[in-house]
Specification:
Blueprint lengths: L1 H6 L4 H10 L2 H19 L2 E4 L1 E6 L25 H13 L4 E6 L7 H14 L4 E5 L5 H10 L3 E3 L7 H7 L6 H14 L2 E8 L6 H14 L3 E6 L16 H14 L9 H6 L3 H7 L4 E2 L6 H4 L15 H14 L3 E3 L10
Parallel strand pairs: 1-8, 1-9, 2-3, 3-4, 4-5, 5-6, 6-7
The structure holds S-adenosylmethionine and FE2/S2 (inorganic) cluster.
Length: 343
């Protein structure tokens, strides 16, 4: 761990060894170092992102995901442009300066429709960042969205190992295509976020080491990781969820490997443990993503079982987050919260 802090990388064998052999003492040592590194670039600030889950229609059929096209029991919804702008307005008043538009790969939102929504948000909120998370698109489409005013893009690589990728996705999806998208996004100039689930079915310690090394090569500005949590209406209904301990350990390793990264302490982490998001921050994370979606649709964007905050108002989530962060000595700030290299 000392060497990782200095060199900011280890070999696949060394990462695998750490992942297989860490204990509480090693974790605590790692988290202490991770907090020091995080403080160097981001003090005790915690950036908030207003998450707008604007559609749960999806053409894909990822085996782990509750809104996969094969889940005929999911109740589908889409938000109109006005509804999305309404979420932004609520969010702006609550101090959000980043809006994250996330959804399934939904053909209803054509490139023109999406670009129009992005332009409207950009015009109305020139001081805010617009983050997209709408899956795999062509270079031209990503460029169109960027020119319309989007700044950042979240696209988890899910797993860097092609065989493991094939265990989690139907044959028409490939890890290589997903990685290509990430390189396209970087080339265009987005702040790019990638990431993976911890404890997804069939995942090995070696796979996690590959994930770390892929991220080292990609050099994303953000990395989203969270535990895999099963959803009762998916092929993985009976699979075990990822653990709190391993997710936190991976967050700590990521902070040492990519010191300037924006690392969210995710809702999934808060779902498997009541203090999961606080513990994520204490392991090196520096971002939280409270929900800005209208209350009426929140329980329909169910990626996994028992997702938290599906009944709360945006304002409640915002205040709750502030209290939680304060309780551990950190402060939610009103800021776009760019990666230090993009300021
Ligand atoms: N469609 C976009 C995409 O493919 O990037 C964004 C939406 S997708 C639902 C966002 C992320 O949710 C995925 O990258 C995946 O890692 C995560 N996710 C999906 N199902 C999950 C589950 N059962 N447990 C934990 N995370 C899950
Ligand atoms: Fe498309 Fe999950 S399968 S968002």
């Amino acid at each position: 761990i000392d060497r990782l802090a200095v060199c900011q990388v280890l070999s696949a064998e060394e990462f695998t060894y750490l992942i297989l052999n860490y204990d509480q003492e090693v974790s605590d040592y790692l988290f202490e170092k991770a907090r020091q590194v995080r403080t160097r670039y981001y003090n005790h600030d915690v950036y908030i992102r207003g998450l707008i889950e604007f559609t749960n229609y999806c053409r894909n059929d990822c085996y782990y995901c509750g809104i996969r096209s094969g889940n005929k029991k999911a109740i589908r919804y889409r938000l109109s442009k006005d509804e999305i702008l309404g979420c932004c307005e609520t969010g702006y008043l609550l101090g959000f300066r980043t809006f994250v538009l996330q959804g399934g790969e939904d053909g209803y939102y054509t490139d023109e429709r999406m670009a129009d929504i992005i332009r409207s948000i950009r015009d109305k909120y020139p001081d805010c960042a617009i983050t997209l998370s709408v899956g795999e698109k062509s270079y031209e489409t990503y460029k169109l969205f960027f020119d319309a005013g989007a700044d950042r893009y979240l696209l988890r690589h899910e797993t860097a190992n092609e065989e493991h990728y094939a265990r989690l996705h139907p044959a028409k999806l490939s890890g290589a295509a997903r990685k290509n998208c990430l390189y396209d996004l970087k080339k265009i100039g987005y702040q790019v976020g990638s990431g993976f689930m911890v404890g997804s079915p069939c995942q090995t310690a070696g796979n996690l080491a590959e994930d770390l090394l892929f991220l080292k090569e990609l050099q994303p500005q953000m990395v989203g990781i969270g535990p895999f949590i099963s959803h009762h209406d998916t092929p993985f209904a009976k699979e075990k969820s990822g653990t709190l301990e391993l997710t936190l350990f991976m967050l700590g390793l990521l902070r040492l490997m990519l010191p300037k990264a924006l690392l969210p302490s995710t809702t999934a982490l808060g779902t498997i443990h009541p203090k999961g998001r606080e513990l994520g921050i204490l392991a090196g994370a520096n971002v939280v993503m409270p929900n800005l979606s209208p209350q009426g649709v929140r329980d329909k964007y169910l990626l996994y079982d028992n997702k938290i905050c599906t009944g709360d108002e945006a304002a409640e989530c915002r205040q709750c987050m502030e209290r939680r962060m304060r309780s551990i000595g950190y402060e939610v700030v009103v800021s776009r919260g760019d990666n230090v290299d993009f300021r």
